[in-house]
Hints:
Radius of gyration of chain B: 19 Å
Number of domains of chain B: 1
Largest sheet of chain B: 8 strands, mixed
Largest sheet of chain A: 7 strands, mixed
Number of strands of chain A: 17
Oligomer: heterodimer
Strand order of the largest sheet of chain B: 1-11-6-9-5-2-3-4
Strand content of chain B: 15-25%
CATH superfamily of the largest domain in chain A: Zn peptidases
Amino acid sequence: MEQYIKNLPTVFRTIKSLKETIITNIVFMGQTPATTFHEKNRSEIFLKRLATFRVDECSKDDYNNPIGIIRGTSDRKPPIFLVAHMDTIFGSDIDHNYTVKKNTIQGAGILDNSVGIGVLLSLPVILNALELRFESDIVLAGVIQSIGRGNLRGIRHLLKTWPTPIRGAVCIEGAELGRLDYYSNGMVRGEIDCRIPITGIRSDSSRPNAILMLNEAINQILELRLPQKPKANIVFGKISGGFKHGKNAYDASLGFEIQSNSDKMVKSFFRDIKDIVDGLNHENDVEMNIKTISNTSASRLKFNHPLVKSAGVIMKKLDLEPVSQHSESELSIFLSRRVPAITLGVTRGQNCHLKNSKMLIKPMFKGIAQIIGVLIAIDNGVCDE
Amino acid sequence: MSKSWLAQNTFHYSEFRDLEHLVRIKKQRKLTISLCLPTLNEEKTIGKEILIMRSELMQRAPLLDEIVVVDSGSSDRTLEIARSYGAKTYEAINILPDLEHYMGKGENLWKALYVTKGDIIVYLDADIKNIHHRFAYGLIGPLLMNRQLKYTKAFYDRPISTGKQKMRPTGGGRVTELVIRPLFSLFFPELTQIIQPLSGEYAGFRDLFQQIPFPIGYGVETSMILDIYDKWGLDVMAQVDLERRVHHNQSTKALGKMAFTILKTFYNRLEQLDMVDIKRNLYDEMIQYNMIKDSYQPDIYKIQRKERPPIIEIPAYRERFDDGLKENKIE
């Protein structure tokens, strides 16, 4: 590890010398549309390219997560996982062709998560150029069905069916460089749908309005008392509904998320919201229902866990100030299965979830250097206690 | 008309995806290959095009020996970006500066012959939004694997980017279908087998390119096909399916100008070949009309009729390439 830190200038030069290949991988991944549940094309290109990089084993698991394994030197050490999610929010009708300039790459989904998956794909080439060998097998997994309604199905399945213990894991996200996530909140992501049934001949003005019904639901949810401890939060993140400006809305939908570091608290608030929905349903002539889109359990590493500490040291050596937040992503699945894991960001950028999302190229080299540093730290045993 | 050419000389890029094999043949035949990208304000696409080619066909498989950008005077950052990704960059005006200067794609392609070193030259348009290294190796493959072939031309599906981050699945090729194909059908039916004669992606041996004239503008693709056909016949040509190329949609007026230039080039060649006898000079101006306020105003587009001679006739070129390329001489 110390040797790696001492050699950081050389490491940088080597990573930068592979700039074209790294960006090509990012572009090839990002330009292949991959909405959740439709990641097949991107997965196949990912696997084909892994194979051309002569990764020891390239295959899909039985849930179609594409996986490459770089064989380690020891058959006694459990594998180390590096994962990035394959799916994005942008459909194939959106122009996915990226613009590469001197210092930036721009295009739909570049930060979430084309750069993450592109860097994951480039690691065999980079590790080879750095002449790094590991005791553990390195498992490079592009996981499918991760975001939104995917509910992290890919990673859940991969870990559920993985036949051996796992030594440690790094989850790679495009943004933001400096991110060092090591805990996940309990979370339930839900949707409240409201539909106004059309029964008999009624004037439009006498019908309930779906948007107003959701508004009432929001008001009642806002009246719930959120405790300071355990911390809890309810986020209203999405809303849609209606038909046109001058018509009462017949349908509307509200997307929300309950977050807490206590699973019990999350469940309790979900029950409260369900009661509110049931009450509105009962008292009004509407069809309102609530459903769960996804959920994760609260789990964490301690701040003084050797993995977190060594990641922090590496980041500081790279002049990065670690910033930690809860992360309800692949990380939560590793942690809930008691696999030490962290999430790292690769680079900086703008408009993360917009079509014109843009990433900076130069910080990416630091992002890659930190991932490799953490990989070495795990191989040296920081997760073995 | 022989239809066997279409069956025998039409390839799919995937037949050449074994890059190690192509590199082996290239070494055995002691060939060098240059990629040339003619540019004019292509800052949105040039970086990606160069870095993908460098990564895949120079660093990972040494199929290309150089990437050269020849620019017509971009006012954006095309050249700066191209240099930052390792291409050799030239402004066309500075190549063979003693000659009269013209501006146009054909001019860039012609001058590229002077600054590139390869025995094989691959020309790719610099505005390909979905660039992939298949665009180059797909065109190179047939030239390496079949000694009879000296020139390859791309064809593909043409989805259109409508400019609002949305894609239309089909479209394009209007000038081909409305202008070129009818003309080929009238005068050179064999050439109708070329599916996209106006595609901007082609490759060939230097010895072939140096022996044909280059119109300086849009007509270069048309004249190239007619000249190669006239000099060496259809059998030295092949076409390669590159599957999909995303391009910007052009307005009907812009296509009108393109069609006008191509028609002029075509008639010029027909006269040279004694296939038609036009009794008077054709005009050089394409006249289109725009409604401005309450009246129609003519929008006159004057084409430059200039054509560069075969570059082998330029003394400076002969000096530079005197000793080379004899092994690949086309008889």
